[in-house]
TrEMBL record:
GO molecular function, one term: sequence-specific DNA binding
Protein name, UniProt field: Lrp/AsnC family transcriptional regulator
Gene Ontology terms describing biological process: response to amino acid
PANTHER family in the record: LEUCINE-RESPONSIVE REGULATORY PROTEIN, TRANSCRIPTIONAL REGULATOR AZLB
Record has Transcription as a keyword: yes
One cellular-component annotation, GO: cytosol
PROSITE patterns noted in UniProt: HTH_ASNC_1, HTH_ASNC_2
Ranges of residues in domain HTH asnC-type: 4-65
Taxonomic source organism: Agromyces protaetiae
Length: 153
């Protein structure tokens, strides 16, 4: 599904308000039949509309209260191998390829500053990584959200 219609957007917004809502509750809220909601949810899921549940798990209680962003500069010819190696580091929770001066932006979680130093060292030790720049996240100011986007679409 490449585009969401008004009903899909309303369903996604309702799930944004209450991610644990049942099909029956969503149907009542939106004035739709239970079968319509069930079918729409199935199509949305099959289209890849829903991200991983892991995105909603807080790493703090798991013992990783700090978060940092590591800008990674790599030799372009080995970018894929570098990404594969970075993916093997358990504390890496996300990575994006970028255009511009930085090749990769890697989001990591850590126990403390010493742990962050160790993780940064693991990234630097990967063949093809030229250098890193690490920034400790001071706090999430705008959490991941799509509701404003759904409202403007």
């Amino acid at each position: 599904m490449s585009q969401y219609d008004r009903v899909d957007r309303a369903l996604l917004a309702a799930l944004g308000d209450d991610p644990r809502a049942t099909v029956v509750a969503l149907a009542e809220r939106l004035g739709l039949s239970r079968n319509t909601v069930q079918a729409r949810l199935g199509r949305l899921e099959a289209s890849g509309a829903f991200l991983s549940f892991e995105r909603s798990i807080d790493p703090g209680p798991l013992g990783f209260p700090l978060e940092a962003f590591v800008s990674v500069h790599v030799r372009q010819t080995v970018l894929a191998a570098v990404v594969d190696a970075i993916a093997e580091i358990p504390e890496v929770i996300q990575a994006h390829g970028l255009s511009g001066q930085v090749d990769l932006l890697v989001r990591v979680v850590c126990r403390d500053a010493h742990d962050l130093f160790r993780i940064d060292g693991e990234i630097l030790a990967i063949d093809g990584v030229e250098r890193t720049e690490t920034s400790l996240a001071m706090g999430e100011l705008i959490p991941y959200r799509l509701k404003p986007l759904l409202g403007s679409a």
